[in-house]
Amino acid sequence: MDKSLVLGSASPRRKSLLELAGFQFGIRTSEADESVVKSKDPETLVQKLAEVKAEQIATTENEVLVTADTVVSFAGNVLGKPENRMEAIETLQLLSGNTHAVHTGVMIRGYNQSKIFSIKTDVEFMELAETDIIRYVDTGDPFDKAGSYGIQTKGALLVKGIRGDYYNVVGLPIAYLVKELEKYDITPS
C-alpha cells in the first residue's frame, strides 16, 4: 500500500518546513471553528486545537494526517493572532524586554492510530522602543502570527535569543515531527 502524508494546514510556514525536511505531501485545510476550544493552559489548548482541526479533515486508510496550532503565552495569558493594529502594538509592548513561551501542538493521525504532542520554546525579546514596534507593525507582518511577530521574517529583529526549537517558533517542531512520522513509515525523500 502506498503511504502518503497530508498536511492539514493552510500555513505557508508549515508547508515550507515540511518541504525543507524533504517530504512529499498533499494539503487539505480544516473549516473547524477554533473559537469553541478553550483552555487557560497553552499546551492543552494547542493540542485540542490540533485535534479539532484533524477531526474536520477526511483521509483515506493509506494517508497520514498532520495538523498543528501555535500560540504564545506570557504571564499566564495565551496570546493568539492580533485582531487589529492596536492589539499587535499592545502585544509587542507586553513582550518587549521579556521572555515568553511559544507552544505548538501537533496531531498525527493514520493507520488506526494517532498521537498528540506539544513542544515549548522560550523566546526572549529585545527591549523595544515605541518606534521599533510601530515600524514593525507597519510592515503588516504581525497580523497572521501568534504573538504578533514572525521570527522567520522581520520579527527576527525583535528577538534577543531563544531556548529550544527555533522551528517550533516558526510553527512546526520539524525534527521531533520527523522522528514521530517514522513510526508511521513516513520518511523524507
UniProtKB/TrEMBL annotation:
It is an enzyme of class 3 (hydrolase). CDD domains: Maf. GO terms for molecular function: dTTP diphosphatase activity; UTP diphosphatase activity. It comes from the Bacteria. Its cofactor is a divalent metal cation. Pfam families: Maf (PF02545). Keywords: Cytoplasm, Hydrolase, Nucleotide metabolism. The keyword Methyltransferase does not apply. GO terms for biological process: nucleotide metabolic process. It catalyses: dTTP + H2O = dTMP + diphosphate + H(+); UTP + H2O = UMP + diphosphate + H(+). The keyword GTP-binding does not apply. It is found in: Cytoplasm. The record marks 13, 70, 152 as: Important for substrate specificity. GO terms for cellular component: cytoplasm. The active site is at 69 (proton acceptor). Nucleoside triphosphate pyrophosphatase that hydrolyzes dTTP and UTP. May have a dual role in cell division arrest and in preventing the incorporation of modified nucleotides into cellular nucleic acids. Belongs to the Maf family. YhdE subfamily. This is dTTP/UTP pyrophosphatase. It comes from Thalassobacillus cyri. The lineage of its organism: Bacteria, Bacillati, Bacillota, Bacilli, Bacillales.
